[in-house]
Write a structure and sequence with these properties.
The complex is a heterodimer of chains A (159) and B (217). Chain A is mainly β. In chain A, the strands form 2 sheets. In chain A, strands 2, 4, 5, 7, 8 and 10 form a 6-stranded antiparallel beta sheet that branches. A 4-stranded antiparallel beta sheet of chain A has the order 1-11-6-9, with no helix packed on it. In chain A, a hairpin with a 7-residue loop joins β7 and β8. Chain B is mostly beta strands. Chain B folds into 2 domains: 30 residues; 168 residues, no CATH class. Classes of the chains: A mainly beta (159), B mainly beta (217). At the A-B interface, α1, β1, β3, β4 and β5 of A face α1, β1 and β13 of B.
Chain lengths: 159, 217
């Protein structure tokens, strides 16, 4: 492969990464997604219930449920580096609100679609970042079907 | 001849390797973006209608049947004139969740509240229907009758922008549609009943029962 071809290929990959937010426009690494495939929820699925609906209130977030999440984040890729860990609710998870408390290792917080919330700040070790969080999940009654999938992930941002 | 005769066709070795290293590093970052996340299946709350007439229980069943009554004085029997009716209801506060004192004088009011909930457009019709059914007559032990159309009601809801959300009316001895309840709304107001006293009736205690129904097919 010629030098020019390498340059073009690297440029294309860089453009794709910029579009995906993996690196920022200045070329510095931006948020890096962390693997928490060892996390699991209790129960594995949750049935929402109706919240009271006063006449003056809208129907937004009028369904509610609770779930515990045993969080286990693999921090090996960022071990020893100062940074922050965020919990992220992607924008396509519309009409949802998450409010959680923790056992203390992670910070409590609140998330709505398209947002991220700081759950940890500091230098991480090479093992697992673990905690159990209790999540109050609220949803607006504007679903496309009777069930849906909630996907939440964690990302790391260097200081 | 110096070795730099063909610099564009034969770049230094360091120049050819640099982009390759960059490509390898960027590929690693791209793969790192595929890390797993916690995931949960969530089920929507099930479709539901809720109705209370007079004394009720929030989010639950209540078998109370309230009584609306009037004792017509002898003088009023002769003179005529509408007679305000009283109730044995004690339901003053809203059961919608805000506990608002929607019916401040329940001794003369019946609080009616209705809601319809659905989680998505495919989960039932866009609204529910509130109806009331009355028999043709009130009757006494002797079999005398008073048309149910002698009883009418006014409505109120202090502080509400829509105090007439369930409208005033007169019983017609059949089934009447009172209101449409849009999905994911709660409607309520207070009903105050009046006996028209438009004719002299045989003495006695006349009874009749009306039934309110909220339906969503």
């Amino acid at each position: 492969m010629t030098h020019a071809a390498w340059i073009r290929m690297a440029g294309a990959v860089l453009a794709a990464l910029l579009a995906g937010g993996v690196v920022n426009a200045a070329g510095a690494p931006s948020a890096q997604r962390l693997d928490d495939s060892l996390s699991h929820t209790v129960p594995p699925n949750v049935q929402l219930q109706w919240r009271p609906l006063p006449p003056s209130a809208g129907a937004a977030l009028s369904m509610e449920g609770w779930v515990r999440v045993n969080v286990r984040i693999d921090t090996a890729p960022v071990a020893g580096r100062p940074g922050r860990v965020y919990m992220v609710l992607p924008p396509e998870q519309r009409g949802l609100e998450l409010v959680w408390t923790s056992q203390g290792r992670l910070q409590a917080g609140r998330l709505t679609p398209g947002e991220r919330a700081l759950v940890y700040s500091g230098v991480l070790g090479a093992g697992l970042l673990e905690d159990q969080i209790t999540v109050r999940l609220r949803a607006s009654p504007d679903w496309d079907s009777p069930t849906r999938r909630l996907n939440v992930h964690f990302e790391w941002q260097p200081d | 001849m110096p070795l730099t005769t063909h610099p564009r066709r034969t770049p230094p070795a360091t120049a050819t390797k640099a982009p390759r290293r960059a490509f390898v590093a960027l590929c690693f970052l791209l793969l790192a973006g595929e890390a797993a996340a916690w995931s949960l299946s969530i089920g929507a709350a099930t479709r539901r209608v809720y109705l209370h007439v007079g004394n009720g229980t929030a989010e639950g069943n209540n078998g109370t049947i309230n009584l609306v009554s009037v004792t017509v004085p002898a003088a009023a029997l002769i003179a005529g004139g509408a007679q305000a009716m009283t109730t044995n209801s004690t339901q003053s506060n809203s059961l919608s969740g805000d506990n608002f004192a929607t019916c401040p004088t329940p001794a003369s009011q019946i609080l009616i509240g209705a809601s319809y909930r659905r989680s998505n457009a495919g989960n039932g019709p866009a609204s529910a229907t509130l109806t009331v059914t009355s028999p043709a007559n009130l009757t006494n032990a002797a079999g005398d009758t008073i048309p149910f159309s002698e009883i009418s009601w006014t409505v109120s809801a202090p502080g509400s922008p829509v105090p007439g959300v369930i409208p005033a009316g007169t019983f017609n001895g059949g089934t009447q549609t009172l209101a449409t309840v849009p999905a994911n709304t709660f409607i309520e107001n207070c009903h105050t009943f009046t006996y028209a006293n438009s004719a002299i009736r045989a003495a006695g205690t006349y009874n009749g029962r009306v039934t309110y129904t909220l339906t969503s097919p």
